[in-house]
Design a protein that fits this description.
Elements (H helix, E strand, L loop, with lengths): L1 H27 L6 H20 L4 H23 L10 H26 L1 H26 L8 H21 L3 H27 L6
Helix pairs in contact: 1-3, 1-6, 2-3, 2-4, 2-5, 4-5, 5-6, 5-7, 6-7
Length: 209
């Protein structure tokens, strides 16, 4: 029962992150999830959602489908507005070529995890490794943009809770030191990012972010 509860908590938290990322992306005319993490997330969700549909549709499978659909909208904000985040010498064609390469690489990495570890272990190892990458990239994005543009407290907190819940499921209950360690490191970076966003929020006009 506890595992199901934590699975639902993770699903709700990450869904809130994706919905907020779509809203913020269109509002600020940018993308709200770091590019490399977005590519890996979409590849992971598309692959495992498809597998769930082809085999047995579980609670996590339904969540994966919802996430994959939400990622399509976030990917649109990246393609639509992402070029403006790069130096002037990066042409539109070069940007799209880089985006395509990033996407193909993300799918290749996810499938290589499956070949190496099998479906069950691959889904967990890849998810936590890319979550740790994302945690660091959110901080890097904050620094690169000189503040919280295209970001929000809901995304920061939702990402933390959405990762912490499966850390308990697969790391603690699943007795996996690797996942527990990766999840703990995610929390360190996520809490640092929350602090950055909170600090920016307090200094913003009206204190809103």
């Amino acid at each position: 029962m506890m595992i199901l509860f934590l699975t639902v908590v993770s699903g709700v938290a990450w869904t809130a992150v994706y919905v907020e990322a779509i809203r913020i992306g269109f509002r600020d005319r940018t993308y709200a999830i770091p590019a490399a993490a977005l590519a890996l997330n979409f590849a992971w969700e598309a692959i495992y959602a498809s597998r769930s549909v082809a085999t047995v549709l579980s609670v996590q499978g339904v969540i994966n489908i919802v996430w994959a659909l939400a990622d399509v909208a976030i990917l649109y904000t990246f393609v639509r507005f992402g070029r403006a985040e790069l130096p002037a010498w990066v042409t539109r064609k070069l940007f799209l070529g880089w985006a395509l390469l990033l996407g193909v690489t993300a799918f290749a990495v996810q499938l290589l995890f499956v070949v190496e570890f099998g479906w069950d272990q691959a889904s967990r190892y890849a998810a936590f490794l890319q979550n740790l990458l994302m945690s660091g990239l959110f901080i890097a994005m904050f620094v690169a943009r000189g503040g919280p543009r295209g970001q929000s407290m809901l995304i920061a907190v939702g990402k933390w809770i959405g990762t912490l819940a499966p850390t308990v499921v697969f790391g603690w209950f699943g007795n996996s030191p690797l996942i527990l360690g990766l999840g703990a490191l995610c929390s360190v970076f996520d809490l640092a990012y929350i602090w950055l966003v909170l600090r920016a929020r307090k200094s913003a006009p009206g204190g809103n972010l």
